[in-house]
Amino acid sequence: MRNHRFLHIVLLYFAFICTLYSQHQITISSTLYPESNTIQIEQEIVYNNTSNDTLASLYLNDWANSFSSKTTPLGKRFSEDFLKRFHYAKEHERGYTAIKFITADDSRIASWKRYDSVPDIVQVQLRTPLLPSEKIAFRLQYDVKLPSDKFTRYGYHDNGDFSLKYWYISPSVYTNKWNTYSNKNLNDLYNPLSDLHIKMRLPSSYKIHSELQQYIIPDETTEETQTIQLSGKQRNKANLYIEKDSSFYDYQINDLKFISNIDEKDIAPELKSIAIHKILTFLEARLGKYPFEKIITSQKEYKNSPVYGLNQLPDILRPFPDGFQYEIKQLKTISKNYIENTLLIDPRYDAWIKDAIHVYLMIAYTEQYYPEMKMIGNLSKIIGVRWFHAADLDFNDQYFLGYKNVARLFLDQSLTTPQDKLVKFNKNIANAYKAGVGFKYLEDYLEDDNVIPLSIQKYYSENLLKLTDSKKFEATLSPLTPKNIEWFFEDYINTNSKIDFKFKSVKKRKDSIEVTIKNKSYNAMPVSVVGLRKKEYVSKTWVTDITGTKTIKIPNEGLTKLVLDYDQKIPETNRRDNYRNLKWIQNKPFQFRFFQDIEDPTYNQIFFIPEFEFNVYDGFTIGSKFHNKTVIRRPFNYNITPSYGFKSQKLLGSASLSYRRQIADYGLYQIRYGISGNTYSYAPDLLYQRVSPFISFSFRPEDLRSNQRQRLTVRSVNVFRERAEENPVNTPDYSVFNTRYLYSDNNLLNIFNYSIDYQLAKNFSKLSTTFKYRKIFLNNRQLNLRLFAGTFIFNDTSRDGDFFSFALDRPTDYLFDYSYLGRSESTGLVSQQIILAEGGFKSKLDYSFSNQWLTTFNADSNIWKWIFAYGDVGFVKNKGVSPKFVFDTGIRLSLVADYFEVFLPIASNNGWEIAQPNYNEKIRFIITLSPQTLISLFTREWY
Questions:
Q1: 153 pLDDT band (50/70/90 cuts)?
Q2: What is the structure's pLDDT at 743?
Q3: Which domain of life is it from (predicted)?
Q4: Which of 54, 143, 247, 547 is deepest in the core (most CB within 10 A)?
Q5: pTM (2 d.p.)
Q6: DSSP for 430-450, written as a single string
Q7: Is residue 413 left, alpha or beta, with left meaning phi > 0 and alpha meaning psi from -120 to 50?
């Protein structure tokens, strides 16, 4: 017996030694120079070929060099996400790696190189291929110029501190192929486990905080400088926080030292310690023991991956109880690090499994310790706020809403989509939330609260500090489940198929109820049917394999209502049709709510909100908009807005109905139908009515990150205007059939779009096209070009003057598409408002309209930041008159591009305008008062 025990110990020992032997080793000797934000590095890498393949070359991650130019994959990513700060940064604010040499003592390294398209990956060519189980040791010498922290929150800070991430060169992961990924600001560097030995020399005034073991080397320390040794086994990263005045605090929690600078005002150290102990105890019970001696969380990490609902609320509100906000921040960051430091999963192509575990643990933690916590905290108790459905939602409901938001926008992507192919909202929020909510859905379907926690715990323990993937989790979970769960991995994980069920029919029999359920999507996902007797929960039946429709029978036990997914565990995109009343015709009561709210599927909601507008004829108008638009967009929308004009003293208003239908993921992906109408004043004491039915077809590419969009709109614009006896119009009522095609591809650095517009009315037909191009060059010079060309196919509108003509500087807007402050004004301040449509000129010239054809070219370029020089040229052709050449030049002040701009004319066909009388009347401006239009400026960074 003793011999067997001795042999067992010996085998464990040799297994441990072999594990250590299999690790790569990275030894770094470095010197930090704060005055130049530079680190000099001498490094040795011992690379062990643990694969079964013979390697002819090695690949290294050099993500510090991803900051070297505006054209690296990182620079391009910033531009795609409309993040300006990197493109407009000063050269010294960016970073780079300057490699001096890469050599090996045995001369096995033939050469090394970078590729222009991926400068943050280094290929090392070997003279002699590296055989399986063989090692190679090679040395590198290089300098790292650290970037400013304003790009990713890591790098050098303005106060002289440093947060280091991706700061040294490391081997790429090899798994039958090299997994080499460029830095795209996704925080997904894929490093293998290595034993790290880092020696750093730096001024004595600094302190280093990290998860590595560290000590000061006395023999290499003076009053001015110090040398710190850091080391750690089986590590895939070495984040260092280097500060003069330390912002970090630490607690010893059993065998684990916790270090952090995430702080919360008015939280006593004792309460922080209790919270951290609770979080770490929870994670150890749910996952397993953390294998290292220290764990660190930082404010930088949290801000890069915050609790978004919590993060958006201003500190002054403080809607959550003392300690909860701090606790949930730490939970998010600790659990993320706990998983990422111990499970080696491909973070670019297989991130969903880590996300699912992470979010599921956060949901479970809140359920265990804060089951009554609401999504908006204590705000839910305030009179007025508590009337909103948002006040009823639990804290964990935010995860479903985050996913539902992109699903309703038709931007959802499968959980297996590579991280660099995800739209920004999916990368940061929606996909992780869908993954975590998916585990709750699966848990509800299995009807056993222990299966998912047990599978996570088993998966963690069996794959601790190993290369692993989601397939191994599936292999762990499947044997533990009594039900078939293929649908979860095939449909829920691998596709972006929407989940949407409804009752098609319900028939009462003598002792049973025959229920037919329709699955609106093409998937095999299950749904539960719950029977209620008034408010009493009577029965629950899971229905699977619903292809199109499926009919089941459930016992009729005096049921009064049937509900699909009563517990709301399924991330269904539409829960409004999940209710069937067995005792009454109306399935859901009506509910009136002020302002706007989160959708409550148990009611037919109608919202109302005061609305204020202004034009010079009606003055200020006040109305009440009745609508069904919720915080998250829904397919069918209506709004009815009766209003009153204080100046015109008339009843005004607008109304619209629209329905969006998604028919595919890309190509022709959406069709929108609708009708709109409004009535306002178009001149003093004169009203117009406009009614316009429409249908639009939207197109997009397969890559949802692409901003390329196409839209074809067909509409009929019907206008009815009151007549004025003293100034009658010859055509007060008219109808225009309009077909318009729009193409756009808008990015931070390049904008290209064009439109083709055809109009047909009783007395005219016209065709026009507009091209726009904007380019921001590497030297930050901006060029804007615009071309307009329009011609009448036939024109019999002479009795209407130029009302239907092409306009050189100020369209008459007979289709009532534009938001003019005073559309009929020819003098005064509001007449100086322009909308850059048709001719796009800024000066008022003698030839302001064209009844035959018009061609103009507009250009401007910046002189300094938001100050531009502009110039317009063109030809105006009217019937019976030879074409007239027109031009103007001036200064454009682009305070908010396309939304608030001022144009100062200098010269034109009118002469030297800047020296002419009443120059202030020649100044033109663009102004946008629509809140929705301004909001789009900020939301474009999210999607």
A1: very high
A2: 98
A3: Bacteria
A4: 143
A5: 0.91
A6: IHHHHHHHHHHHHHHHHT-TT
A7: beta
